[in-house]
Design brief:
It contains 10 helices and 37 strands. By secondary structure, it is an alpha/beta fold.
Length: about 525
């Protein structure tokens, strides 16, 4: 039966050099109070130290406490001085020595740990989100690891960078193997010493409910992997309940797998999502009127989202990524077409409207919430009809980099998993960074050219490998100035925005010369008007 202890006592139970597994997304599933106790105990005693932190999703909130910093305003080109944000960044706030190795799919919101990685004071690795999340199940089952095509040709391929994010990273976490004459990547399993998890309610036997969590995270798989590795499972909760009062279907981690429970002293250490302490429509307690969703402003971003929405078909099951792609859902809502498609997130939301930052990963009024393990199984098997993800850098081969920009470390999140198998992949973003436009009257005019080129000769890191795109996969790159398509592994312009000059406004702002479709079309002029009303699925 689980023991109920303080956060400080939990911190003292973690041995030096332990591999620690955490699960969740944003602040859902994040054990903030225990993490702060680990940080403080290390600062005072030097222990625990030299931990290897393993996580699947971004765990943090991109800001100072409750003051959110918008994704588009987060610039990490130089070592960051921002401390105080919640999440995994807590582990770096005491300086080097607490974390020796850090493996995750998305690391951008853990500012202090990114600072240490840039300073080569810890080893940093990034692997695909779905790989890490489902690797827990392979470890739990005693299997040697995960074999998949996910990651081939990208920076996690050992023939490219092997997932290493800094010079200190030396471990080989990925291997190329051949099976039935085809190449695959093998991600070996590992021993898990400590599971550091969070739920909403624990009963007196340690059974854990996720009642207010917006994500039914991979906590069960991590707990099973840890117990079968001979490690300990620690869970932070907000509420306690009498034994045998939880509905057994509501128990997501059985008490038999839980060694220690910490009831948080401060409920503010149990936020449901980065931007919400508790939004009941995220966790299924209520449904909110979706006509309250505010339209996004009329600017170049909305143009991109409208053009992306035009690629949807009635009945599609789609995934929308963080940043601009998440706003495609607001365009669909504004156009009154929400009921014709089903939106989803890699965190396990099916239906409803995915939330953008600061609560990305959650969804308003989801029809179903499944585990990210199950969602990534479905994604990797090709179940999605379409995905819309962001643009960081794109090169002449169609490679897209969203995981590392200069010294800013971000990681791929679920980007690699989703793009590896989805039938139709749309990359959405502005053509250059910081450009200024005049919009209206069915056209667009460049008022001030941007100072950041996104279409470059060679990307800094390969998050999507254009040359490994399956033959039957459709890949589009949609911007406010032009639409590109990957045709015969070549970047090809297929549409140009009305009002622009192909040479001056597009080709001269690229570092490579793309193919130009012989039947080059003009983008639909109606999406360049403030009022649209032209989306019909």
């Amino acid at each position: 039966m689980a023991k109920f202890i303080s956060a400080r006592k939990a911190a003292q139970l973690i041995p030096d050099g332990a591999t620690v597994g955490i699960g969740g997304m944003g602040l859902s599933g994040w054990a903030e109070e225990i993490a702060c106790a680990i940080r403080d105990n290390f600062a005072e005693t030097g222990h625990p130290c030299n931990l290897h932190l393993k996580q699947g999703s971004a765990m943090g909130d991109w800001g100072h406490g409750n003051n959110f910093i918008g994704w588009d305003r987060v610039r990490r080109d130089e070592p960051d001085k921002t401390h105080g944000a919640r999440g995994a960044t807590r582990f770096g706030e005491a300086g080097p020595g607490l974390i020796a190795k850090w493996t995750s799919a998305h690391i951008g919101s853990a500012f202090s740990l990114c600072d240490l990685a840039r300073a080569e004071q810890l080893e940093s690795y990034c692997l695909p989100q779905g790989v890490i999340i489902n690797l827990w199940r392979e470890i739990a089952a005693g299997r040697p690891g995960l074999i998949t095509k996910t990651g081939l040709g990208t920076f996690v391929d050992p023939r490219v960078e092997g997932g290493r994010m800094n010079k200190s990273a030396k471990d080989d976490l990925v291997k190329v193997v051949e099976f039935d004459g085809e190449e695959y990547l093998f991600y070996p399993g590992f021993k898990v010493d400590v599971a550091l998890l969070r739920g909403t309610i624990a009963d007196e036997k340690g059974n854990i409910s996720f009642a207010h969590e917006s994500v039914i995270n991979e906590g069960l798989a991590i707990a099973e992997a840890t117990k079968n590795s001979g490690g300990i499972v620690i869970v932070q909760v907000e509420y306690l309940a009498k034994a045998d009062t939880l509905n057994p279907k509501d128990v997501k981690i059985p008490g038999a797998l839980v060694d220690y429970v910490v009831k948080a002293k401060d409920p503010m250490s149990c936020w449901q999502a980065e931007g919400d302490y508790w939004e009941p429509s995220f966790s299924g307690q209520i449904k909110i009127p979706l006509d309250e969703i505010k339209p996004i402003p009329f600017d170049e971003r909305k143009i991109v989202c409208r053009r992306c929405a035009m690629e949807l078909k009635a009945g599609d099951l789609i995934n929308l990524g963080v940043g601009m792609p998440a706003d495609v859902s607001k365009v669909v809502a504004e156009e009154g077409q929400l009921e014709k498609v089903t939106m989803s997130t890699e965190s396990g939301m099916v239906g409803g409207v995915p939330s953008a930052l600061p609560s990305f990963g959650s969804a308003y009024n989801p029809e179903a919430i499944i585990t990210p393990n199950d969602m990534f199984d479905f994604i990797s098997g090709g179940g999605l009809d379409m995905t819309c993800l962001g643009i960081g850098q794109v090169d002449k081969y169609g490679n897209n980099n969203v995981s590392r920009m200069g010294s800013r470390l971000t990681g791929p999140g679920g980007f690699i998993d989703i793009t590896a198998a989805t039938k139709k992949v749309i990359f959405a973003g502005t053509f250059t960074g910081h450009a200024e436009y005049k919009l209206g009257d069915g056209k667009i005019e460049v008022v001030k050219e941007g100072d950041i080129r996104k279409f470059v000769d060679t990307v800094s890191q390969i998050t999507f490998a254009g040359q490994y795109s399956p033959e039957d996969q459709e890949v589009l790159y949609i911007t406010e100035r032009a639409v590109f398509k990957l045709i015969d592994k070549k970047m090809t312009i297929i549409e140009i925005a009305p009002g622009l000059d192909l040479q001056k406004d597009i080709l001269d702002q690229m570092d490579f010369v793309p193919e130009i479709a012989p039947d080059l079309k003009t983008m639909d002029a109606s999406i360049f008007n403030e009022k649209w009303g032209g989306l019909t699925l």
